[in-house]
Design goal:
This protein is α/β, with parallel strands linked by helices and about 300 residues long. It has a single domain, classed as TIM Barrel, CATH 3.20.20. The protein is about 40% helix and about 15% strand. The chain has 10 helices and 10 strands. Strands 1-2-3-4-7-8-9-10 form an 8-stranded parallel barrel, surrounded by 5 helices. It has a two-stranded antiparallel sheet with strand order 5-6. Helix 1 packs across helix 10 and helix 4 crosses helix 5. It is globular. The two termini are about 30 Å apart.
């Protein structure tokens, strides 16, 4: 099935804007309320599916607290890298979360989570082999044929040495092309690889087909804590995140629907002050420029 033949709901949406990863904890509701008080423009929120594993319906209450903003669901439970399909109950639970949260798409990690009998409950770095890449492609195609919500795939950190012929981003590129699917480009995860198995960040980004990027992840650390010498590395990381995103937006093929700011565990112990998050939200919207303005005028 080509992009032209896909149902419209499974094509990349028009420009949405900027949002952030909203956690299922009371302090995040207060954080959202404060953003609204200072006039922040939040166009979309992202939820972690794992937070609602035992009560999918609770996500409806959380989403209501954001005035029902459009959302995306972040998950690893479709088991796209496993030979066996995800248990039916798992798929039903994820679909239920999407149903109650004004979800536009589901972002799945490119990772392995075991089998139906031995379910790790988390994700592991894929091997990058030809066989496994084809498993990802087949599973993602099937999932997108069956799901009313498009599934896109995210690059995860390199946790150990490369085994097959592909790095994580090379495999993400091949899967997205083979399954005719979108990509969640995590600039955060490229940097996180340094904690495990360092990679060349720029080389990894260069493997990504930019026209397939629907969403971007970028962290926003706490500005005060960044001044501590202990977090000097994160200051340098932030410079790379900012310059890389700005350079990507200069590429004509790079037209993500949304950039999601990661404000929890962004490298510093505390999330950024709401005022800093507001500045970053405005910055993203400025980067989207006339394309975003045109879409908003048409709504």
């Amino acid at each position: 099935m080509t992009s032209a033949e896909q149902p419209r709901r499974h094509r990349k949406p028009a420009a949405i804007g900027a949002g952030y990863l909203h956690h299922c904890i009371p302090s995040h509701q207060a954080y959202f309320d404060r953003l609204m008080e200072i006039g922040a423009r939040v166009d979309m929120v992202e939820y972690l599916a794992a937070h609602f594993a035992y009560d999918p319906g609770y996500l409806a209450e959380i989403n209501a607290g954001t005035a029902g903003l459009p959302s995306t669901l972040h998950s690893y439970e479709y088991m796209l890298g496993s030979v066996e399909s995800a248990p039916p109950g798992t798929v039903e639970r994820l679909q239920r979360m999407a149903d109650v949260s004004n979800c536009l798409w589901i972002g799945e990690h490119v990772g392995m989570v075991g089998t139906q009998d031995t379910y790790a409950g988390t994700f592991m770095q894929p091997m990058g082999t030809d066989e496994q890449t084809q498993v990802f492609i087949d599973n993602l195609r099937t999932a997108n044929e069956e799901s009313p919500y498009p599934l896109i795939i995210e690059n995860q950190p390199m946790l150990f040495n490369q085994i097959g012929p592909r790095t994580v981003c090379q495999q993400v590129a091949d899967i997205a092309e083979g399954a005719d699917a979108g990509i969640l480009l995590s600039l955060s995860n490229l940097v996180l690889s340094d904690d495990h198995y360092p990679v060349d960040w720029d080389s990894e980004v260069a493997h990504i087909p930019l026209d397939r990027v629907w969403q971007v992840h970028i962290p926003v650390p706490n500005e005060k804590e960044l001044k501590d010498p202990e977090y000097a590395r994160f200051r340098e990381n932030e410079k790379w995140h900012i310059s890389t995103l700005e350079n990507l937006f200069k590429e004509k093929d790079f037209q993500p629907a949304v950039v999601i700011l990661e404000v929890e565990a962004p490298g510093t112990p505390s999330r950024p002050e709401p005022e800093r998050t507001k500045e970053r939200l405005d910055w993203v919207r400025d980067l989207m420029g006339s394309r975003l303005q045109t879409e908003e005028a048409a709504r």
